[in-house]
Amino acid sequence: MTDRYADGMTVRRAVLGDAHVDRAEAAKTDYDVPFQTLITESAWGNVWASDAIPRRERSMLTLALLAGTGNFEEIPMHVRAATRTGASRSDIMEAFQHVAVYAGVPKANHAIKLAKQVWAELDASEAQA
Among residues of the chain, what percentage have pLDDT more than 70? Predict the structure, then answer.
């Protein structure tokens, strides 16, 4: 295990939570180990581990980029992560407003729909706690 991998795993757990990372680790197969290593080292151990900008802003950038490029599948995961990095719901909505202007209203609209679904789930689980 490289230092970058170890750092990446630490940041990944801090941002996404242990439960998410444990599920992802349990789902790994021999086929995707190289890919999982790549994203842990590069995305989490290099980009997310950098202290050049705070994680809150990194979360908002990530959400805007995912929405702007139409990569909606990871938006719910990163909306959940944004709560761990200090981004408020208003912050996330501001990021999606930028998406609407610079990348298209339909993309922002879909991202907002996904965020609202996540927030409803979070609110429901808080109400049960």
Answer: 100
Q: Could you tell me the domains of the chain?
A: 1-52 (no CATH), 54-128 (1.20.1290.10)
Residue 54, by phi and psi: left (phi above 0), alpha (psi -120 to 50) or beta?
A: beta
Q: Is the pLDDT of residue 76 over 90?
A: yes
Q: What's the mean pLDDT when you consider all of the chain? A: 96
Dihedral sign (CA 42, 116, 68, 27): positive
Residues 6+ apart with CB under 8 A from 47: 58
CB under 8 Å to 88, separation ≥6 — which residues? none
Per-residue confidence (pLDDT) for residue 122, from 0 to 100: 95
